[in-house]
Amino acid sequence: MFHRVFQVLDRLFHFEVAHAHCDIPCGIYDPHQAQVAALTVIRMVDLMADLVKGAQKDNAEFHNSMSRYIAVKEEHAELCKREVRVIFGDFIKKEHVEKYPELPTLVHKIMQAGSKARQSASREAALDLLAQVNRFAEIFWEIKGIPTKRVKAPYKPEEEIVYPVL
Amino acid sequence: MRVQGSSLAPDFANGDYVVVSALPLLFRRLRPGRLIVFHQPGYGQMIKRVAQVEPCGKLFVLGSGEGSVDSRTFGPIERRQVEGVVVWGIHRRRN
Questions:
Q1: Which ipTM score applies to this complex?
Q2: Might you give the EC number(s) for this enzyme (chain A) (predicted)?
Q3: I want to staple A114 with a disulfide (CB 3.0 to 4.6 A). Which of A81, B13, B16, B18 is the partner?
């Protein structure tokens, strides 16, 4: 009953709001998007390499495809960085860093690897990004108390990816 | 005040109300466990529970959930940031 009374008073007088902040959606974090983004970067590098090896060059089709691959590579390398930043900034707490002291360096490496993947068309750079993100995912799931497994992604580029064993 | 957000669940849910008073601040020292409303730059008025009073007088505040944005995110808060203590919680009827 009191709640109903307060609701009516709130409508009339517009009470101040006390924020019980949590991230929205509350507590939903998953490094999977970062991993898929890293896989996409590798896939785009592969497609770019295939295109260069192909017969058609210096025509509109070639440039159109190449531009699209580069655009997707750019976008997903940045998405990968953003996802890791959000988890590191919002989910990872001081006690996690104390338990996993490699975390700040690892995240910094991911930021750099993501930038390198954007700057170059190197498969090694893209693989490095995935390797760092996979390690990040392993730590993330360890923090959550969930075991992980490494499996080959069931789609191209078929590189190894860390999955939670749920 | 109306509680917005779920970081104090299950004690307080989104849409619950709290009556906040600054009077207890004048007569009593803040102790761990007290629910307080404070102003945090960049976040506005926040409601959290005092988890620890540090020797320097700063307050380490926490929500209940893992996703809570609290002192684990922005560090301990200054005593002067505290605007009041929750003296009455009005909960929505829960089924």
A1: 0.84
A2: 1.15.1.1
A3: A81
